Amino acid sequence: MTTMISESITYLQNSDEVVKTVLIGGLLSISSVLLVPAFVVSGYLVRVLQRTMNGNDEAPVFEDWERLLVDGLKAFAIAAVYGLVPAIVGFVLVGGGIMAAFSGDAGSLIGGTSIFVGLLLSMVLGLAAWYVIPAATANFAETGRLSDGFDIGTLRPVLLSRTYATGWLLALGVIVLGGLVAGVLNVVPLLGTIVGVFVSFYAAVAAYYIIGHTWADLRTVETHHEGTVDERPAA
């Protein structure tokens, strides 16, 4: 585990254009409020998955921008669909609870319960969505087909495997670490916030490096009943 985290943190340094890549990624992240830059960053993370799951540990550079944008849009669509479930549940239960709370004494009790259950259920479902999205994105990245991001038959055994759970936790740890560093940098007005965005981009790339390698490990051990390795077409 320690080796994987260490390799993920030094991953971008394997590129001859590490400074340029981090600079572009950070600037795009800062501009993500415009949406299109955010899609491009998502497309870059998809490219990280595609390389690492195929055994290429040379970090990609920002090029072929049209494909980055298209892949990023697809990755965003996958995340949005899975994230929609907890959002809808929370909206219905919390919204209904708020309305009930203003309908009288009995409604206040029911409304309060509905709000509590809605918030709790949304948090649980949100965590589940966070768990599914990297695997769904990796499945899409491997084939290039958006529909494979929703291939439950393929995703189910992956999500239930210890290998994926471990990889996901490691990736989450890197994201949290990046968030903590960014939070500390935020103490410095403006400049710290800007640098923090660059750190967050770096952490996201490191996390997707882990997911890509985890996906490769899963595909290596997956076999047909006759004992041959199940090889799926690369994107």
From TrEMBL:
Tree of life domain: Archaea
Keywords: Membrane, Transmembrane, Transmembrane helix
InterPro entries listed in its UniProt record: DUF4013
Name of the molecule in the record: DUF4013 domain-containing protein
Key word Transmembrane present: yes
Transmembrane segments: 21-46, 75-102, 109-133, 165-185, 190-211
The keyword RNA-binding appears for this protein: no
Pfam families in alphabetical order: DUF4013
